[in-house]
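Input/output pair, single chain:
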Amino acid sequence: MVTVEQWRAICENDAAYDGQFFYAVSSTRIFCRPSCKSRTPKFENVQVFMQAEDAIRAGYRPCKRCKSGGERLPDVEWAAQVQAFIEEHYGEYLTLPVIADGCHGSPYHLHRVFKAQTGMTPLGFVHLVRMQKARVLLETTEMSMMEIGVAVGMPNAAQFATWFKRMEGVTPSMYRNSRKDGEK
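Output:
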């Protein structure tokens, strides 16, 4: 249970509380020091731990920004954390600053580390995940192109169709029809 005093310390990034507790955010699976400059999480997503080790045992990862685990998170682990964040939030409006904020790092550093670890940019990975999800929806549902575009984070149907054709070489409708023809 988060106390009023702890919540105030989190919201105000109060360094006076560093060492007294750590807070973990269930939506990102990251834990931070109270002084962390990351975006203030939703109250209902916060859990408090007295020791960093307790947060780690509960399945949370140290914050890259405030080094809540006492040392820097290895780049390979941070890249995996970024991938997990993107896979969980692909349907939302994602930019490099949004991803960096969600993964507790700077946009420049995140871009550089992610590309070095995966061979692609974070936004390239966003497009890859969205494409995979769009193909599944085209193959397994009767959702409209607009509904699929919205579901994968592209609320403009024309933009979705253009993007899909550029990535797949066919329009979303042609893709769907070719899959149905293959079933016959």
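The longest helix spans residues 122-140. The longest strand covers residues 22-25.
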